[in-house]
Write a structure and sequence with these properties.
Elements: E1 9-15, E2 21-23, E3 29-34, H1 36-51, E4 59-70, E5 79-90, E6 93-102, E7 107-119, H2 120-138
Antiparallel strand pairs: 1-5, 2-3, 4-7, 5-6, 6-7
Length: about 140
């Protein structure tokens, strides 16, 4: 992985959809506003954009931590901009601060993400090992 410059910023711009509102499945729809779990997804996506330009061939990233402090609502149809700012690199661990703002200029959330940069073959091998364990667990008579 190549070094990430201090203060490197990436943005993710999205439009809130009805699908992104609070609906807990078993418990049903709760609030007709942008859900915290979607904000977490978008924080992780913006954090990934921080590492992509700096990965070497054969490297991949995997999320390991997302902190979300959801401070305000956004309605379906509103544009939200998530800004990811690189804050630190500790070996292969990459940290970024997150901030989400609506088109009205209201901050609706902030937090951080952490990702690990590893050889993609190692990431793939870990997933394959998990698939193998799960398949063995599901076999009849086991």
């Amino acid at each position: 992985m190549r070094p990430i410059p201090a203060g490197f910023i990436q943005t993710l711009i999205l439009t809130v959809t009805d699908e992104m509102t609070v609906d807990f499945g078993e418990l049903g729809a709760v609030h007709p506003v942008y859900a915290t779990y979607w904000l977490a997804k978008h924080f992780e996506e913006a954090g990934r954009k921080i590492i992509l330009p700096f990965l070497d061939d054969g490297e991949g990233g995997i999320g390991s931590q997302v902190e979300v402090i959801h401070t305000g609502p956004a309605l379906p149809g509103m544009t939200v901009t998530v800004t990811a700012t690189f804050t630190a690199q500790e070996g292969r661990r990459i940290h970024a601060d997150m901030r989400a703002v609506t088109e009205l200029g209201d901050e609706i959330g902030h937090g951080s993400t952490t990702q690990f940069v590893l050889p993609q073959t190692r990431i793939d091998a870990n997933f394959e090992a998990l698939r193998d364990r799960w398949a063995a667990h599901r076999e009849p008579g086991k």
